[in-house]
Write a structure and sequence with these properties.
The structure is a single chain. The protein has 714 residues and is α/β, with parallel strands linked by helices. The chain folds into five domains: 168 residues, Rossmann fold; 81 residues, no CATH class; 182 residues, Rossmann fold; 136 residues, PCRA, domain 4 (Orthogonal Bundle), CATH 1.10.486.10; 44 residues. It has a seven-stranded parallel beta sheet with strand order 13-14-12-15-16-11-17. Strands 3-2-6-7-1-8 form a six-stranded parallel beta sheet, sandwiched between helices. A five-stranded antiparallel beta sheet has the order 21-20-19-18-22, with no helix packed on it. Helix 1 packs across helix 2, helix 10 packs across helix 11 and helix 18 packs across helix 19. The chain starts with 8 loop residues before the first helix and ends with a strand. Bound molecules: adenosine-5'-triphosphate and magnesium ion.
Length: 714
């Protein structure tokens, strides 16, 4: 089949308009990704462009892998060039260029787990505890500072001692933690996820020759899911396309779901202002979903006020209603879903065609219990991601020791299994390393004969690392892994402890390494492998098994499944109780839109009564009532009282949202639902409250901006 066959007119335009700035804006399931994929094949097959001159960016590794597979079949070549996420692309650039920053090619990439262990070290050294800070808030702080401060100057243009004095002389604790973190990172040449793109931008901005090299190399650049790019990703796309001026972007503003992480829908909306020559292509046929699913999703998303109206016409003919089921308990909701799945199975559908989507990880638990009981195989694509599980991480740290011998890995595994290197001896090593400006591993090596290390198995540990250091380049990865598992005693430790789950996970890791060896061809060295998986999430696990797929909606972005269950549709869960502004509520509704539009043949919505963790009652979600009833088939009618209460609750909640957006001012007269009439006499921004003098109270009260206050007069 030709590349253009089976595409509609707009898609063909998108494929053959190869030159210049092109933007495709279109709704869910309208064939954007398909157009982008075929465009790649067109460039290669019809125009003779080399795959190494095309950059194609997608949002998840899973989407990138799927795209690679499709493109491989179309171009009949295994070499697909740069099809990856922004992170993945940056790793490739850094592998070639990071030496200009005096970093080694084998720099390490650290994930949240590693960041946590660095923070752990910092906490210990600074004598902090969880009362002072929590790790998530610190990670947020670090990310935020990295996005606004020229911190790379601190990392790159200061030596160890200068960086050290930055945290020793810090003005406050937050600064101290931040610089201390940078110091720990630099010590082991470790880059976290934020650094990847920042380092690349820094190199491009400061090394014109390198920038030009990449600009010239990448003749065509394409980006999927453009509605969710952040400022740095946009900048990278802009820089890279600034030589050949070929940038093709695709997206759906209604599917922006990463604003909370800095995504800005404006970049796709204002693309034609930034590039006045840009051509815009719209697509309005939906090929994925049945008319009821398309209509239900459309009717939901039109409830957002800040959006551009789009028309989406369903192409599928067969139609069954979207089903909504309300249950009395979470257990019953899970049982209902299990029953539906069994029915689908009996009618000959494969479990792989079924996905269960939810707002937050914790929802999966009740389903897992029922699925185990009912013998329904399932795979979870979230929770603790595969490569972040303890045992996997431990083993990867062993492998990292062989390549980098960095402090993070060392701290994690030197005493695992026990080698008698406990706190006291670690403190000794740290002190030595600090004094001599060396790594902990080197500290251990240099002091092996010291009294304090006599009664440990330090020698055996060093022998292990050194042995594999000299031979790993000649070994197959799978052999290396088995060797290390054996020689370290790690596998034996799990066996002794009877940790079957963890052993199963190790078996899975071995399997994945086999597959990697088979597929990777030449790029199969240990450092390559380590770099690659540090970008991985569980989303990339293999999918061959016959199992229902469970995942959060964020993880389902860009994917499609014939049968989709969206569960836990309750106020306080979805929308999440953390939503406190109209903008956030609109993002939440877009998330529901993404969820509903993943379905091809049938969509099932469900909720259940009960109480949330904070004690609030679980009403059915507004995202059910936002869908016109004509498109929904209720399995049971809701009780009138419940509907009444729910509407009342939602109404109150919406007012609160508006309240937090539309602010009152000093001297306004208001009415509080309990305290009655009063006058705003001040604002307390620190605690986001009005100071109000109520008519029947002697003293003022501070009332949160979030509470709805009826405006009487100004
Ligand atoms: P999303 O916004 O969810 O990312 P999308 O716009 O990227 O969706 P695709 O995933 O490309 O949509 O396509 C949706 C489905 O429609 C896929 O199964 C695809 O194979 C199919 N499809 C796309 N274009 C056509 C077409 N012209 N004819 C028939 N089927 C098509
Ligand atoms: Mg898509």
């Amino acid at each position: 089949m030709g590349i253009l066959d089976g595409l509609n007119e707009e898609q063909k335009q998108a494929v053959i308009t190869t030159e210049g700035y092109i933007r495709v804006i279109a709704g869910a399931g309208s064939g954007k990704t398909r157009a982008l994929t075929n465009r790649f094949a067109y460039l290669v097959n019809e125009l003779g462009i080399s795959t190494s001159n095309i950059l194609c960016v997608t949002f998840t590794n899973k989407a990138a892998n799927e795209m690679k597979k499709r493109i491989r079949t179309m171009i009949g070549d295994n070499d697909t060039g740069y099809i990856s996420t922004f992170h993945g692309f940056c790793v490739q650039v850094l592998k070639e260029e990071i030496h200009v920053l005096n970093y080694p090619k084998n720099f390490i990439i650290i994930d949240t787990e590693d960041v946590n262990s660095i923070l752990h070290t910092i906490f210990e050294d600074m004598g902090l505890n969880s009362r002072n800070y929590t790790f998530p808030t610190l990670i947020e702080m670090i990310t935020a500072r990295k996005s606004r401060e020229p911190y790379l100057n601190d990392i790159l243009n200061t030596n160890h001692d200068e960086l050290k004095s930055k945290f020793h002389d810090a003005r406050n604790q937050e600064d101290a933690i931040f610089y201390r973190y940078l110091y720990e990172q630099k010590k082991c040449f470790a880059l976290d996820f934020d650094d990847l793109i920042n380092f690349v931008l820094y190199i491009y901005e400061n090394h014109e020759d390198i920038r030009l090299k990449w600009q010239q190399k990448l003749e065509y650049i394409m980006v999927d899911e453009f509605q969710d790019v952040n400022v740095r990703q946009y900048k990278l796309a802009q820089i890279l396309s600034d030589y050949h001026h070929n940038l093709f972007i695709v997206g759906d503003p209604d599917q922006t779901i990463y604003s909370w992480r800095g995504a800005r829908v404006e970049y796709i909306l204002n693309f034609d202002t930034d590039y006045p020559s840009a051509k815009t292509i719209t697509m309005d046929k939906n090929y994925r979903s049945t008319p009821n699913i398309v209509n239900a999703s459309n009717s939901l998303i039109t409830k957002n006020k800040k959006r551009i109206e789009k028309n989406l016409v369903p192409m599928k003919q067969v139609d069954i209603p979207v089903i909504y089921s309300h249950s009395k308990t979470t257990l019953m909701e899970a049982e209902w879903i299990a029953t539906q799945i069994k029915t689908l199975q009996e009618s000959g559908r494969s479990l792989r065609e079924i996905a269960i989507l939810y707002r937050a990880h914790f929802i999966s638990r009740s389903f897992e219990e029922i699925f185990i009981k009912e013998n329904i195989p399932y795979t979870i694509y979230s929770g603790i991601e595969f490569y972040k599980r303890k045992e996997i991480k431990d083993v990867l740290c062993y492998l990292r020791m062989i390549v980098n011998a960095d402090d993070i890995s060392f701290t994690r595994i030197v005493n695992l299994p026990k080698r008698n290197i406990g706190e006291r001896r670690m403190a000794f090593l740290k002190e030595y390393a600090e004094k001599n400006n060396c790594s902990l591993y080197m500290a251990l090596q240099s002091n092996m004969e010291e009294e304090i290390l006599k009664k440990t198995q330090a020698k055996a540990f060093i022998a292990l690392v050194e042995k594999y250091k000299t031979i790993y380049e000649e070994m197959k990865l799978s052999e290396l892994l088995s060797g290390v598992l054996n020689a370290s005693g790690y596998e034996a430790l799990l066996r002794t402890n009877g940790e079957q789950d963890r052993l199963d996970n190790l078996a899975e890791l071995k399997q994945s390494i086999f597959e990697y060896e088979r597929d990777a061809g030449e790029e199969c060295s240990l450092p390559d492998y380590l770099n690659r998986i540090s970008l991985y999430t569980n989303l990339d696990q293999k999918e061959s098994t016959e199992a229902v797929q469970l995942m959060t909606i964020h993880n389902a972005k860009g994917l499609e499944f014939p049968y989709v269950f969206v569960c836990g549709l309750n106020e306080g869960i979805f929308p999440s109780k953390h939503v406190d502004t109209t903008d956030k509520m609109e993002e939440e509704r877009r998330l529901a839109y993404v969820a509903y539009t993943r379905a091809g043949n049938a969509l099932f919505l469900s909720d259940s009564e009960g109480v949330n963790y904070d004690g609030s009652y679980r009403y059915p979600s507004r995202f059910i009532f936002n869908v016109e009833k004509a498109y929904l088939n209720y399995t049971v009618e809701l009780e009138e009282r419940l509907v009444g209460d729910t509407y009342f609750y939602i109404d109150q909640n919406e007012r609160k949202l508006d309240g937090s957006n539309q602010r009152l001012k000093v001297d306004d007269m208001i009415r509080h639902s309990v305290f009655g009439k009063g006058k705003i006499v001040g604002l307390n921004e620190e605690i986001s409250s009005y100071v109000i003098q109520f008519d029947n109270m002697e003293t003022t009260r501070s009332i949160s901006f979030k509470i709805h206050l009826e405006y009487l007069e100004g």
